[in-house]
Amino acid sequence: MNFLQLINWAREKYQVKDDLIIFEVIFYLSSKVKNKIQFTKNRNTKIDFNLAMFTKLLDDYYLHNKPLGHITKSTIFAKLPLDLYKGVLAPRDETELLCKYVIDILKKDRKLIYGADLCCGSGNIAVAVKKNCAFIDMTAIDINETAVMNTKHNAKKNKVVINVIKGDFYQTLIKKHLRFDLLISNPPYVSNDELDKSMLKYEDKKCFVNSKGDLFFYETLINNHKKIVNDEKHFLLAFEIGYNQKKRIQKLLSKQKLLKFAQFYKDLNNHDRILIIYKN
Question: What is the per-residue pLDDT for 268?
Fold first, then answer.
């Protein structure tokens, strides 16, 4: 079976609506096809991996909703290799977009020197920002000890130096008197009503839901931003948000007179997913 035949076979067998799922498994298993350009060049070439392994991965990934990163215990995020510890959130595509917008700003604004990744999980954001912007001093914070260890591991794996702290995303900043120029995060923003039980098979509920409400993270940081930024006139706050939270977050921003400095960006599914607050 060649690569093109495999794609057609998988489409029919699984009734997959999005070929990206099939391609991700191929890119993981194949040594010669790691992107769509290589697929095009090799589509008539015999597959270089075991079909049974391919089927098992698709079963877990597509049928059982297991994140590919937790199947393979590793992932690629912003072109960087990361290992994933059990229970820690596997990075999603939307978070790569968040990092891209932030890195683009940082490369133009070298005065944003001190950054913090809150609710850091595997450390994917902190590692990506530091790797692309070596000048920034990055700190990563998470209340989960496993996430702390995972972040330290991935920082070492990618040869970057990051200060990793175990603690609450906001209280840690206040208790340790920490202030930053950049605060970035993919926080737990899913409401209990929207939580799909299948999501909890492989990742901790705390990765998705904040017990104090889906807007608690944003309310806390936006309402108290003056206490945690170095300069009230020059800072960058960057968050991933829920697809249905834009209007409520706009009200928070308006009360703090930050709305005019805010920009919302859409994800690959055309949902409002990224919030950038850049005051310069």
Answer: 77
* C-alpha–C-alpha distance, residues 214 and 188, integer Å: 7
Q: What is the pLDDT of residue 110?
A: 95
Q: What is the average per-residue pLDDT within 237-261? A: 94
The total of other beta-carbon atoms located within 10 Å of residue 116's CB is 26
141 close to 117: Cβ distance less than 8 angstroms: yes
Q: Tell me how far apart the alpha carbons of residues 100 and 128 are, in angstroms, rounded to a whole number.
A: 9
β-strands 80-83, 74-77 pairing: antiparallel
Biggest alpha carbon–alpha carbon distance for the chain: 61
Residue 170 token pair: 């906001």
What residue type is 83 in one-letter code? Answer: D
Distances (CA, A) of 252 to 206, 222, 280: 23, 7, 20
pLDDT confidence bin for 195, thresholds 50/70/90: low
Strand partners, 89: none
Average confidence (pLDDT) over 167-194: 86
What tokens does 74 get?
């590793």
Tokens 């070929």 belong to residue: 19
Decide: 115 and 184 in contact? Cβ < 8 Å.
Answer: yes
What is the number of helices (H) and of strands (E) in the chain? 12, 9
The whole-angstrom separation of Cα 279 and Cα 28 is 40
**Confidence label for 69 from pLDDT (cuts 50, 70 and 90):** confident
